[in-house]
Amino acid sequence: MNAGELLGLDRAHVWHPYGPMPGVRDSYLVSSAEGVRIRLADGRELIDGMSSWWAAIHGYRHPVLDEAVRDQLGRMSHVMFGGLTHEPAVRLCATLVELTGLDHVFLSDSGSVSVEVAVKMCLQYWRSRGRPAKRRLLTWRGGYHGDTFQPMSVCDPEGGMHRLWAGVLPEQVFVPEPPGGFDAPVDPGYLDVLAGAIERHSDELAAVIVEPVVQGAGGMRFHSPEYLRALRELCDAHQVLLVFDEIATGFGRSGAMFAMDHAGVRPDVMCVGKALTGGYLSMAATLCDAGVAEGISRGELPVLAHGPTFMGNPLGAAVANASIGLLRGTDWAGEVARISSGLRAALEPARSVQGVRDVRVLGAIGVVQLDHEVDITAATSAAVAQGVWLRPFRDLIYTMPPYVTADADVAQIGDAIAAAAKAG
């Protein structure tokens, strides 16, 4: 089929993320990708400023990752994880334990499912402890944790994309979003708000769940690590579990291997995904400490009743091992710091663009926030004209480029964001 035929079928039948059906506009047709560039079917090349929704941290067609998939494919592509195990998954879980300081790993096939599993762990833990009334979650506004039902219930209930489901989702406890600014001084008044909410609801709270340091798809906001330390102390004091959602921030994106490392604290339960496999295959994990696992095992139902069909997929585990090996074998922190410096310089001119409200950078994350909703079609087209792929949303034009993005490409991303801001 030619490009026109493919796009016609796509528009008629393929339901894209957060889009209508039938489609109202054509997607960009991709023919291949290599390094940090996406090749379109019409011959254009675009620098990928999004790392394929924050996952492809090493870029595309990386020889080490390609070889890991080929080698594993020659052994087995998949085998059920119930009653069986295999080296790639065992090695991956052992590595995640080493990196995080947590004790146990439950593998799944998407970030949203990893949050579902985290919530199930927390609820079952308290039921097993004889406290079934502890079944609500507390979080701060401005968050995003996924598109399945329990994760939707702890996304921002008003400003988020899931407000349609008010009255259907479980009703959770929300506090205001944390004060902005990674380096901003801690607000004692906000600490009082956190403390008061957790204390008031402690008898019904199973857990507090937050995105540490970076609130991603809920608004691309950064906050002080001090609030994570406060949450750790408050949860310990009031017998509430603490869950960190590191699906977007894990594996170096914020400048630390995990965003929690900025605070020097560990949660009871943690979710990772996205960059886990370097963007090659869908895989996620929910980790917990020994206390959570032991609590569940002492209950009436001593197992975690969850088992994805593709849990522990050998291809995904093999490439995840290779991706983490690449990170640990290179100066990933130096590369992220280089990109961070480049983004600060590249995005500075956007401050003078009419309609820009804020410009902020943390690690390999650059954000331009407008004072109005982005015209996504116009902004995307403007970025593509500059040779860059971006995916704006709400009032945000942002980038999370692969860690291998060259300085000149980072500068070009900055030019594209400025063009998108002017057009959008």
UniProtKB/TrEMBL annotation:
Annotated positions of the N6-(pyridoxal phosphate)lysine modification: 274
Catalysis performed (reactions): (8S)-8-amino-7-oxononanoate + S-adenosyl-L-methionine = S-adenosyl-4-methylsulfanyl-2-oxobutanoate + (7R,8S)-7,8-diammoniononanoate
GO cellular component terms attached to this protein's record: cytoplasm
EC numbers on record: 2.6.1.62
Example of a GO biological process term: biotin biosynthetic process
Keywords of this entry: Aminotransferase, Biotin biosynthesis, Cytoplasm, Pyridoxal phosphate, S-adenosyl-L-methionine, Transferase
EC primary class: transferase
Broad class of where this protein is predominantly found: cytoplasm
Binding positions for substrate per the UniProt entry: 53, 144, 274, 307, 391
Localization: Cytoplasm
Pathway involvement of the protein, from the record: Cofactor biosynthesis; biotin biosynthesis; 7,8-diaminononanoate from 8-amino-7-oxononanoate (SAM route): step 1/1
An annotated Gene Ontology molecular function: adenosylmethionine-8-amino-7-oxononanoate transaminase activity
Entry-linked PROSITE patterns: AA_TRANSFER_CLASS_3 (PS00600)
InterPro entries membership: Aminotrans_3 (IPR005814), Aminotrans_3_PPA_site (IPR049704), BioA (IPR005815), PyrdxlP-dep_Trfase (IPR015424), PyrdxlP-dep_Trfase_major (IPR015421), PyrdxlP-dep_Trfase_small (IPR015422)
Site (Participates in the substrate recognition with KAPA and in a stacking interaction with the adenine ring of SAM): 18
Entry's family note: Belongs to the class-III pyridoxal-phosphate-dependent aminotransferase family. BioA subfamily.
Subunit structure: Homodimer.
Name this polypeptide is given: Adenosylmethionine-8-amino-7-oxononanoate aminotransferase
Annotated organism of origin: Rugosimonospora africana
Gene name linked to the record: bioA
